[in-house]
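Work Package 3 (structural annotation) set out to generate three-dimensional models for the target panel prioritized at the project kickoff. During this period the team completed the workflow that converts sequence records into discrete structure tokens, so that structures can be stored uniformly alongside our sequence database. As a representative example, we reproduce one entry of 177 residues exactly as it appears in the project archive.
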Amino acid sequence: MLSQPTDFTQTVGAKIQDHLDKGLTQEDDLRSYSQVIMGKMMQELNMFKDEVVKSGKYEGKDFYLVVSLGKNPMTKQLQYRFLPERSTPPTPCFRDHVWKYNHLSGELKFLWRIPDKDRYEHVLKHFRAYNNSPTKDHRDLAKFVKEIESGRLLKLINAMCGNKKNAVISLTPKDNE
């Protein structure tokens, strides 16, 4: 939203110079942009949860909601999509955020998030910096990556599924027997 009408008679260079003369930077504040998107996503997630509850499909049962985050390939902007609700927790996938709806309390509990593959590898490579970061977001990323790398997240999911032998599919075929 512009505070002043746009002057289309100026050259691009003149517009940039005017911008810099005002002490403004050319970079967007990515954190505030992300907060707006995540706030909107949470509103829509709660509406989606309410629709599932009203449908009666999971009456007297807990269920899981998954939001897959990514970037629009054309605009490079953050986008998200809601995957169908589930009765069991999903196997962790890159870019997924997972919540559990507790039918007794009526609340959504955030369980985990897995960053995209590049960010995941970056967190692994710079784990100490993420883990000791002053921002909670970075520390949480480090925690979730550590949970996956150690196998604890898959064990947790298996426990949520009732510790069934085939509840979590392994990449090693003999583990699936």
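Confidence is low (pLDDT under 50) at residues 1-5.
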